[in-house]
Amino acid sequence: MITLYGCRTSSATNRVRIALRLKDISYQYVEVDLQQGEHLTPSYRELNAQRKLPLLMHNVQILTQSLAIIEYLDDVHAGHDVLPRDPLERAWCRSFASLFSADYHPLVTRRVADRLRASGLTETDISHWKRHWLDESLKMAEETLSQRAIQHEFCCGASPTMADICLFAQCESGRKQGIDLSHHKLLFGIYALCYELEAFHEVQ
User: Fold this and answer.
1) What is the CATH number of the domain that holds 159?
2) Is 11 left (phi over 0), alpha (psi -120 to 50) or beta?
3) Successive 10-residue mean pLDDT values, the chain, 204 residues
4) GST N-terminal domain location, by residue (predicted)?
5) Residues 70, 92: one domain?
6) Nearest to 91 by CA among 159, 161, 139
7) In total, how many domains does the chain have?
8) Which residue range is the domain that position 99 belongs to?
């Protein structure tokens, strides 16, 4: 039995939801309302000391951090591979996914916005902050894709992997901030391909 605790506005949650759908894994979903502070309640803290989302419970085992969860799902469930089998491609996939999840996503989270707000920044200032870092992440992704010696339909081949999952989630965040994705030709092409797949529909 797999249960996913998440928030529908969380790009980290959406990464895991896409992976679950790509691998056709049945799961129970529990919505945790960040706006209402449900992630800070004692009951949720008992599950996750970090008080972050997403959280995946498989039977009685608990996992946190979206990329670790995705890799676990790939290890224990057959079917669609969300990580390439070739070691170099696998490493590149992890690296590209981390560009979003480690380098840029932490800069635009709710807790960062709350801290900026507490420091006196206006909502307009915070919106500009988010837009700046999201836009830079997309520019870095486009440059990284352009340096690939081999061009694929998706980031690592003919089907979507963890790299595409993270790219799509970041593009969705950028789109919601009013960023024009079409300026990034390679990135936008992959985003458009993902957009056509049913596994990505639920998070749009």
Assistant:
1) 1.20.1050.10
2) alpha
3) 95 96 96 93 94 95 97 96 96 97 95 96 97 97 89 90 98 94 94 95 61
4) 1-81
5) no
6) 161
7) 2
8) 87-203
